[in-house]
């Protein structure tokens, strides 16, 4: 079925929910009211929970071109719509579409093994022990920071800029800005460096200095790779994730609004 459909009543909905009681209660009510389509035959996946559940749903559907509509049955619910159980198919049919492109993380570990992972919010490098991390940062093959001493460093997408990135005092990035946020976590040297905004096309390379003494882990959303010596990150434009938002509560509006909160 093409989206949006000409006849909303024909939308086949597949519901997924977190284990939280409010999400499970909503799952029971909605499946009784609208039915439960097979996820592989559905036109839309409806996620019930918080941002964590939405991230899991997005990751599990990375290789499918299926829209995802979330309703908040968790705490913050930044990536989800408000919960209402009436006229759900009509709401989904009139929703605005937002396409997100994930970050692809490629890691090399101290033992020479490699691993790839995808991040919708951010890729984070974090010290594994009491020793601060020492990192070298290159952008598009040009060394920009020969040595950064810190607890860690992250690169966030616009959708992820209001999550861990914001907690680390990084900037909130509008969806249409075409940039990624590079934000240090508790930087010690250089003291005045507070991060950078990079074009979304940038290829970012992190090299871990003194990796034996100062081990570092790399995390793409919730996929962790420990004892890395080199991490490469860039946006993967070959993958697109479609999120659906109510017209009066779009993701772009939420990101803008977040910048003016006290």
State the main characteristics.
262 residues, NADP, eleven-stranded antiparallel sheet, five-stranded mixed sheet, NADK, Rossmann fold, metal ion binding, transferase
Largest sheet: 11 strands, antiparallel
Hey, roughly how much beta strand do the residues contain? 35-45%
Mean pLDDT metric: 92
Our count of domains comes out at 2
Report what the structure shows.
It holds the Pfam family NAD_kinase. It catalyses: NAD(+) + ATP = ADP + NADP(+) + H(+). It is found in: Cytoplasm. The chain is of the alpha+beta class and 262 residues long. The protein has two domains: 112 residues, Probable inorganic polyphosphate/atp-NAD kinase, domain 1 (Rossmann fold), CATH 3.40.50.10330; 133 residues, Probable inorganic polyphosphate/atp-NAD kinase, domain 2 (Tumour Suppressor Smad4, Sandwich). The protein contains five helices and 16 strands. Strands 5, 6, 7, 8, 9, 10, 11, 12, 13, 14 and 15 form an eleven-stranded antiparallel β-sheet that branches. A five-stranded mixed β-sheet has the order 1-2-3-16-4, sandwiched between helices. β13 and β14 form a beta hairpin. The radius of gyration is 20 Å and the shape is elongated. The chain starts with 12 loop residues before the first strand and ends with a helix. The model has no long low-confidence stretch (mean pLDDT 92).
């Amino acid at each position: 079925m093409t989206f949006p459909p000409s006849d909303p009543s024909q939308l086949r909905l597949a519901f997924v929910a977190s284990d939280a009681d409010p999400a499970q209660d909503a799952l029971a009510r909605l499946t009784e009211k609208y039915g439960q389509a097979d996820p592989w035959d559905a036109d839309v996946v409806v996620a019930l929970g918080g941002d964590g559940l939405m991230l899991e749903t997005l990751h599990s559907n990375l290789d499918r071109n299926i829209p995802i509509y979330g309703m908040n049955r968790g705490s913050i619910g930044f990536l989800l719509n408000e919960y209402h159980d009436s006229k759900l198919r009509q709401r989904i049919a009139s929703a605005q579409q937002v396409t997100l492109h994930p970050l692809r993380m490629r890691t090399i570990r101290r033992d020479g093994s490699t691993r790839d992972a995808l991040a919708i919010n951010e890729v984070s490098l974090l010290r594994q022990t009491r020793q601060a991390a020492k990192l070298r940062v290159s952008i598009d093959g040009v060394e920009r920071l020969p040595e950064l001493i810190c607890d860690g460093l992250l690169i966030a997408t616009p959708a992820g800029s209001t999550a861990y990135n914001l907690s680390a005092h990084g900037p909130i990035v509008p969806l249409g800005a075409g940039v990624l946020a590079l934000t240090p976590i508790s930087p010690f040297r250089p003291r005045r460096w507070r991060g950078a905004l990079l074009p979304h096309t940038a290829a970012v390379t992190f090299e871990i200095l003194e990796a034996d003494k100062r081990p570092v882990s790399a995390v793409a959303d919730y996929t962790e790779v420990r004892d890395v010596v080199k991490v490469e990150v860039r946006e993967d434009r070959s993958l697109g994730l479609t999120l659906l938002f109510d017209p009066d509560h779009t993701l772009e509006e939420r990101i803008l609004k977040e910048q003016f909160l006290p």
